[in-house]
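User: Show me sequence and structure for the first protein, then do the same for the second.

Assistant: Starting with the first protein.
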Amino acid sequence: MPPAARISADTNRRSLATPEELSAYLGIPIGTLYSWNHRGIGPKATKVGRHLRYRWQEVDAWLDTQTADRAA
């Protein structure tokens, strides 16, 4: 099977988020994402060539760790 056919056949895979998409999703400036990445905080970013991308499942896991337990 050619590589393009394998990619299109996997419909369960979510695309990687761009900094622009994640910025809009979180409601924060793109510069904050770049700053977090530089400082080693925030959702884990993956370098694809020279571009930053984010796996949605890692963003969700990071958000779960940021949830404050207000009941305590």
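Switching to the second protein now.
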Amino acid sequence: MTVLEIVGKWLKDNGYHGLCSEECGCGIDDLAPCGDYCTGCVAAYKWHCKDCQREDCGYRDEVDGCYRADRQNQ
């Protein structure tokens, strides 16, 4: 089992959707696509654009959401 597989299992087992840092985010199914070892990342939840109140998000037009450390209000 690789380190990323261990991290992915822990994230899933603890209710997270992926990882994020101040600069990026990634989902459990594609951890660390940047090639980094995530040393500055924290556990994150998936936020969908339709539920997000942030107007200044740079991801809004590129993807259907982003990963953030704070849990989305549902």
